[in-house]
Amino acid sequence: MIRRFYILLLAVIGMAGCSLIPDYHRPDSPMTDTFKEDGDWHHAHPADQTKRGEWWVVFHDPLLDQMENQLETGSLELAAALARYDAANAFFSGQSARLYPEINAIGNSDTNRESVNRPLRGPGLPNMYGDKAIGVGTLYEIDLWGHIRSAITSAEALAEASRQDVESVRLSLQAQLATDYFLLRGTDSQIRLLEDSVKAYESELLLMQRRHDEGIVSGLDVARSETLLEETQALKFKAIAQRAQYEHAIAALLGQSPSTFSIPSQPLVVVYPNVPATIPSQVLQRRPDISAAERRVAAANATVGVARAAFFPEISLGAFGGFQNTGGGALMTAPNSFWSLGPLAFYNIFDAGLRQAAVDQTMAQTREAAAVYRQTVLDAFKEVEDSLALLHYLAEQNNHESAAVKAAEHTFDLANNRYREGAVSYLEVIDAENAKLRTERVELDIRTARMEASVSLIRAIGGAW
């Protein structure tokens, strides 16, 4: 009997090589030979294992380098992503364990009383009896149709997708930190510009008041000077409030309390990374979100195999043995031994289309995952195009705005000289000062935006080039 059981076991295991998973091919994605905004780009294949590197070092800012390194251990969002990856790995391990038999030990010790009037009770049987048993058993499902292996394949792909999700979160947080930091530094420069302007306008107001007291100018000129000063003060405090928000955002990214976190004020140091004239499109395949989306297509495809396997019989091999008696001593003796060996089969004859519905559902989910993958690739191309366009046109805008700053400074000098000569009213000086401050602030905004666009391009291509 035992020999027959092992022969059956080996024969069934030998049959367990079937897979009902559809042949997997990576979904076609939107292609482009070139990016119209800049350079020649070529269609590529996934290379998500490529190291993305500490891309932020291209900005040569030691404090930014320090905070980016702190992000790795301080970010709670990254910690949550890592926990999700651990859970996905654990699920994969759990599915893999189904390939092996599960062995269980059981034991019981009962005292039972039967009803005297139990139907079909034999004469002379005792009303009270004991039942003691101890044994070991296993029920092993033979994976003939690949049901378990399909589930393992799906779980493995989901674990790989989760790993790429971690990298996607990491890259996103790194880019957000750099963006918030440059916005903060740009605001620091704005605050310094406004503080310098406030000091100049305060001196100007004192001069206007003295000249008014001497009867040289009217009260209108004093009022105009005071208006300019107060408006600039208001702009300064608005910028201070914005800086506080950027600082709080950075603290949250680093997993620190905004109440105890502070960054010393420093002006923006403009460093524009050199973008290659030609960027190979392979870098797009380094984007972890693209890789994660592709792995989810593979996972969904594998679940089709799980659903298809439900159309075939489930076959298990059972083995159980141990000792049992009616409650006396010497339980573990040969006369008290028992064992059971044999196969168990289950096959659903009629389910009103339930299994076919499950197959249809998994195939629809695969199509959905493929569409999400294609959209992710398309979004990646869009983000690169956007960033390249921003870098190109912001550079042009910066050139014109710098020329506007010089022209505004010259206009202010001319208006101020003409006012002192009595050729124009003080209103022209005020207009020239407003224009000068406005163009200087716009120039700072453009420089900050160029830094942001550089970070966006790095994020769009999945890291440093």
Question: Outline of this structure?
Answer:
This protein has 465 residues and is α+β, with helices and mostly antiparallel strands.
Explain this structure to me?
- By secondary structure, this protein is of the alpha+beta class.
- It has helices at 2-15, 62-74, 76-97, 147-213, 219-253, 288-309, 354-420, 426-460, and strands spanning 103-113, 128-142, 314-325, 337-346.
- The protein has a single domain, classed as Outer membrane efflux proteins (OEP) (Up-down Bundle), CATH 1.20.1600.10.
- It has a 4-stranded antiparallel β-sheet with strand order 1-2-3-4, covered by helices on one side.
- Helix 3 runs antiparallel to helix 4 and helix 5 (219-253) runs parallel beside helix 8 (426-460).
- Mean pLDDT is 87; it is low at 39-46.
Helices and strands, in N-to-C order? HHHEEHHHEEHH
Helix content estimate: 55-70%
- Sheet bearing the most strands, described? 4 strands, antiparallel
Overall body shape: elongated
